[in-house]
Amino acid sequence: MTTTPLFETKNLKKYFPVKGGILNRTKAEVKAVDDISFAINPGETLSLVGESGCGKSTTGRAVLRLEEPTDGEITFNGEDFRSLSKSELRDKRKDMQIIFQDPYASLNPRQKVKQILDEAMAIQGVVPKKDRPARIRELMDVVGMRPHQAERYPHEFSGGQRQRIGIARALSVDPKLIVCDEAVSALDVSTQAQVLNLLRDLQRKYDLTYLFISHDLGVVRHISDRVAVMYLGKIVEIADKKSLFDSPRHPYTRALLSAIPVPDPDEKSERIVIEGDVPSPMDPPSGCRFHTRCPFATDICKQEDPELRKTGDMADDHQAACHHMEEIVAQYGTTPTLPEEVGNE
Amino acid sequence: MTTKDHTPVLKVENLQTSFFTYDGEVKAVDGVDFEVRENETLGIVGESGSGKSITSLSVMQLIQSPGEIIGGKIELNGDDLLQKSKAQFAKYRGNRLSMIFQEPMTSLNPVFTVGHQVAETVKIHKKMGKREAHQEVIRMLKLVGIPAPESRAKSYPHELSGGMRQRVMIAMALACEPELLIADEPTTALDVTIQAQILELIKRLQESTGMAVMIITHDLGVIAETADQVAVMYAGEVVEQADVKTLFNRPLHPYTQGLMNSIPRHDVDVDELEVIRGTVPSPAEMPSGCRFAQRCPYASEICNTHPSLAAPSNNIDGHTDAGAVRCWIYTDEWDAEGNPMKNEEVQQGS
Amino acid sequence: MHIFIIRRLLQLIPVIIGVTLVAFLIIQLIPGDAAQVMAGEAASEEQLEQVRENLGLNEPLYVQYGLFLADLAQFDLGESVRTGQPVMELVAPRFWITLELAFWGLVVAVSVGLFLGILAANKQNSFRDFGTMAAAVIGLSMPNFWLGLMLMYVFANQLGWLPTSGWGDWQQIFLPAITMGTAGAAIIARMTRSAMLEVIGEDYVRTARAKGVKERFVIYKHALRNALIPVVTVIGLQFGYFLSGAVLTESVFSINGLGRLVVDAIAQRDFPVVQGTVIVLALTFVFVNFVVDVLYRVLNKRIELN
């Protein structure tokens, strides 16, 4: 496959200053996103997955320049996205939309749904005023709501319906890429399933490209084509969905997968429990950032930051950043989880 | 594991808790029954608005105005809890039954050290002096796996991570060796690797003390992992109750089936997730019949009458211990009505 | 914490410069010739020149300000143009009286305010709540001097329980303190009530109940400690207002405090005294604010981290 990616970022960094001291000067930096690169092909869903503090949401905002990245390249549709001026950026926004976790916080409570949608279209100037009512009806239909519901205010809807409105707003300007930032995390499972199915149907219908950010590996498996696992600002493993879930290579990916409780009582407790908390991103461990919690860590892990790489039997677009991948595979194979005794050593 | 002949540690009968709002009475919990035995974990699962949290808060009598327990019976090892005065019941809380909550971030008092907060429990219930209480705090913090307990005891809650705070909550809850621990969404706010640690910890402590545990969650994975018995709640009622294996292998209630099929799993591929159409009915429009009927793919005439929670009458696959379900499909009336839908089809969740 | 205090102290520097500058400019901003205003219309040209000389009004403005600051650093606030006494000597004893008065006013405000606020919050929407809050509105809207006069009329003139005026005897404390504290009590009561209501809904209060803490301790230990955090700020501000607002109460009860001093000084156009009083009050206000900030920090452990 040699499709040109719709979106690509190289060496993306986002550092936040930590101020302190008597004169309130910058004392240190939180490296929320620290030199990551990935590309998304048109019509594809790439998921960023990881625990809190891994930098996945910051990445989502940085690639849209909602928060200006500290460094790195962003290419969108062949264009250098970072060199765009403020006004050019505003024009480009219609191609890249974002859906947030809490739809309620991102919808103006004083506007009716139709006003919300109308405003989104008016700002981007994509749909002439006279065509907008028809477009609003169409959008409501597309996200599975009834047209007359556009006359209501956001508070009159349930969480799932609000998320549908958020999706309708994103769709109103015909975007190419949608960043879904924990878009279904606040929803109950039955509603979550409805919204996930909707996102997938819309992708097929409009050939949308998604950057899907989530902490829920079940959701990620369902929606993604490819998955990147993040830990403390770094991508530790990136692969197509099948490789990642069926033969993960990074010990963190495996630990993550084995930590998720499976809704099947017969499959109980084939799990390793990794010790300790995620270290503070303000003071990340040296070398491999996972070494403080990794059951396989050796001296080299404390000193050298591993690069993303591929070893012999891995699928083409599968890469992981671990010094000991080969030994671990030789000893334990490539099952998604690791044998229990590993965690207890 | 489950020992049938024990008297239950906790026995809840026909619990009713309502909220009296300006819009009228909201029956958040409406006639709930269950039991939890020694060394056993009961999982209560349901979505938001199902009444699962209100149920657990009712057992602890932590319902605040405008909410009120308006009926039912709650017994702790034979002691009728609802008959106790406020002062009497305060002596039980944190002592004979305790609770941990969803938000470890906000559940600890920000202005006291964690050591002080754990010590408070033993000072109240065990009448320990300062020094003795301190020793006990260190012992408990060590027990729940907090590294360097001596210095951590002097920390304020904001200085600890979410996982550590939940450990502190557990130390506090278990300091007096309660007969019953209620865990209300204990890991929902935590990352999965931390969730695994906390669930493991609760299990380990249960094994050593033999306490009964009630775990409330929306996550069927957590249920499968931890519970022995499960109650599924929907719109203020228990709609299905069974031991964990029976429930997961053969969910009976259409709602339970829908719930299970709508979870995206990380270990299995599904092309299209099954959805439960519609949303939970609002309290104002609660149907008088089966509360799930509007969303149920099998709803029939008889569902306009409210079903009761009962063992399925028609023998299913020779299983005798099939728990209880609140659905007409599993009654003789359903068969008598000559409904086209056969039980077998429902059980396949088609 | 030390860093915080040092930073906060450094931030005081521009505030203090601003305050002294404004106080300094009081004399410059008097419409017309300051010397004329102070010396009176009948003053001769020599007398005016004498006043100008004494006040240094002939120097360029920045030199005047520099001299002013230099004097201030030595606690020299100049002399009264009426009596020739050093302003510092006039201000100091009266400052203590006002401080004492403000202190007792604060005692009334805090004790009554906290008590009523907790009482109201404890039984939200009850008769007790509405009654307390109605009383607070009345207390807040009652003019200070009128309240003083009424108290004096009832308790001194009619009942004869307490002296009508003066300062120094413990019995003379009550009426002025109540007069001063009433509005503050009302503000603190409302603040406490809303802070308590907010805190009572917090998860950690529920945790305290779940632990078996007696309801009394749930309220007075777990909830109140947290509710006090915003209330402390209000209390600190109240104290500042009391200092500057003492004028009316002092007039009503004939107390020889700073308020009286400044009123008399304005009437007699004794501007150095006005200036001196303003500086002392403003600096006290700044200092009280600083203490409140530090206290807020001590109470609220969470801020320290950020």
Automatic annotation (TrEMBL), chain A:
Q: What InterPro entries does its record include? A: AAA+_ATPase (IPR003593), ABC_transp_ATP-bind (IPR050319), ABC_transporter-like_ATP-bd (IPR003439), ABC_transporter-like_CS (IPR017871), Oligopep_ABC_C (IPR013563), P-loop_NTPase (IPR027417)
One Pfam family per UniProt: ABC_tran
Q: Which SUPFAM superfamilies does the entry mention?
A: P-loop containing nucleoside triphosphate hydrolases
Matching PROSITE patterns: ABC_TRANSPORTER_1 (PS00211), ABC_TRANSPORTER_2 (PS50893)
Q: Which UniProt keywords apply?
A: ATP-binding, Nucleotide-binding, Transport
Protein name from the UniProt record: Peptide/nickel transport system ATP-binding protein
- Give start and end of each ABC transporter domain: 7-257
Give this protein's Gene Ontology molecular function annotations: ATP binding; ATP hydrolysis activity
Q: Which family does it belong to?
A: Belongs to the ABC transporter superfamily.
Q: Name one GO biological process term.
A: peptide transport
Q: Which NCBIfam families match?
A: oligo_HPY (TIGR01727), PRK11308.1 (NF008453)
TrEMBL record, chain B:
The entry's localization annotation reads: Cell membrane
UniProt-listed SMART domains: AAA
List the InterPro entries hit by this protein, alphabetically.
AAA+_ATPase, ABC_Ni/Peptide_Import, ABC_transporter-like_ATP-bd, ABC_transporter-like_CS, Oligopep_ABC_C, P-loop_NTPase
Identify the Pfam families for this entry: ABC_tran (PF00005), oligo_HPY (PF08352)
Q: Which UniProt keywords apply?
A: ATP-binding, Cell membrane, Membrane, Nucleotide-binding, Transport
Q: Which GO terms of the molecular function aspect are on file?
A: ATP binding; ATP hydrolysis activity
A GO cellular component entry from the record: plasma membrane
Task: State if Membrane is listed as a keyword.
Answer: yes
Q: What is its main location?
A: membrane
Q: Which domain of life is it from?
A: Bacteria
Q: Which family is it part of?
A: Belongs to the ABC transporter superfamily.
Q: List the PANTHER family hit by this protein, alphabetically.
A: DIPEPTIDE TRANSPORT ATP-BINDING PROTEIN DPPD (PTHR43297:SF2), OLIGOPEPTIDE TRANSPORT ATP-BINDING PROTEIN APPD (PTHR43297)
**NCBIfam families assigned:** oligo_HPY
Q: What is this protein called?
A: Peptide/nickel transport system ATP-binding protein
- Organism source for this protein? Natribacillus halophilus
Its lineage reads: Bacteria, Bacillati, Bacillota, Bacilli, Bacillales
UniProtKB/TrEMBL annotation, chain C:
Q: Which UniProt keywords apply?
A: Cell membrane, Membrane, Transmembrane, Transmembrane helix, Transport
GO-annotated biological processes: transmembrane transport
Question: Per the record, a Pfam family?
Answer: BPD_transp_1_N
Q: GO CC: one term? A: plasma membrane
The chain positions of domain ABC transmembrane type-1 read 95-296
Where located?
Cell membrane
Task: Show the PROSITE patterns listed in the entry.
Answer: ABC_TM1
Q: For this UniProt entry, which segments traverse the membrane? A: 12-30, 101-121, 133-155, 170-189, 227-253, 273-296
| Membrane topology, from the record | Multi-pass membrane protein
InterPro entries xref list: BPD_transp_1_N, MetI-like, MetI-like_sf
Which family does the similarity line name?
A: Belongs to the binding-protein-dependent transport system permease family.
Name by which UniProt lists this protein: Peptide/nickel transport system permease protein
